[in-house]
Write a structure and sequence with these properties.
With 279 residues, the chain is α/β, with parallel strands linked by helices. 45% of the residues lie in helices and 15% in strands. Helix 2 links the parallel strand 3 and strand 4.
Length: 279
């Protein structure tokens, strides 16, 4: 009876994903083995990149939504989720853009929409700048901004807290930017705890030096930034250079796609619909 129940549940899960089954794929990245959640079929594929101390499950509502009509892929960056730590200890944004490259090349995705959240927005932008012909559209979700605009003394003091008193500083900061939902906040803190300390500290150090201008200049394709009110300032990516179209979502924390998945999915659908009409 138990075996029959397991079979029925598995069949129901596969049926819900359309004519392409969901699979967990292992991809050899530049410095480690990466875990990839791949599923759905049809349409222009969408590739999702999570935030610092995040993982592919942060996109579960988006993957479920999109896989009804198209292929959608989410990867775990090096040292995050089910992916292994990098052998060379490299947690730079440029290095993690190499993770995206390895995944899309291995999966044979020649053209796709790239979505990145927070630090993952920087990773997505870095990839798009290096491979503008591959990215049919770029969606940045409350992304990191121009790190060079952060006063050096302020950046040094911020990083010092993580380096000297990591647990309380990291937990306090994550709690301060999480949204009003206590269950989501608890989940985010658990994801933070599961992420190697060196990954968090090294990524934050790189974020403070991140220069998005070269990638913004090289990528001239369709783009949209979906942000919270706290991320609407001169250093925000949508305010740099010629600027990017943006939408502000209120009443959420930093993880917009978790706090308001339906609203986020509508904005994503609108963007994808525009790309389809332009093709």
């Amino acid at each position: 009876m138990r075996n029959l129940l397991r079979t029925l549940v598995a069949a129901a899960l596969l049926a819900a994903c359309g004519d392409r089954t969901v699979s967990t794929t292992r991809v050899s990245g530049p410095t480690t083995v990466l875990a990839v959640d791949d599923g759905g079929s049809g349409g222009l594929p969408v590739v999702f990149v999570h935030s610092l101390a995040g993982n592919s499950t942060h996109w579960s509502k988006q993957l479920e939504h999109l896989r009804r009509t198209r292929r959608a892929v989410a990867l775990d960056l090096r040292g995050h989720g089910r992916s292994e730590r990098p052998r060379n200890g490299d947690y730079t944004i440029a290095g993690m853009a190499g993770d995206v490259a390895a995944v899309v090349d291995t999966l044979g995705l020649d053209k796709f929409v790239l979505v990145g959240h927070s630090m993952g927005g920087g990773v997505a932008l870095e990839y798009a700048g290096a491979h503008p012909d591959r990215v049919a559209g770029l969606v940045l979700v409350d992304p990191i901004g121009d790190g060079k605009q952060i006063p050096p003394a302020e950046a040094k003091a911020y990083l010092a807290g993580f380096e000297s008193n990591y647990d309380s500083t990291s937990q306090g900061y994550w709690t301060s930017i999480a949204g009003p939902d206590s269950a989501i906040r608890k989940r985010l803190l658990a994801d933070l705890e599961a992420t190697p300390r060196e990954a968090v500290v090294q990524v934050l150090r790189d974020v403070m030096q991140f220069d998005p201008h070269p990638a913004l200049a090289r990528y001239q394709g369709p783009a949209l930034s979906i942000v919270t009110p706290q991320n609407d300032m001169p250093m925000s990516l949508h305010r740099l250079g010629k600027g990017l179209p943006h939408r502000i979502v209120t009443g959420t924390g930093h993880w917009i796609q978790l706090d308001k998945p339906d609203e986020f999915n509508r904005l994503l659908d609108d963007f994808l619909g525009n790309q389809k009409r332009e093709q």
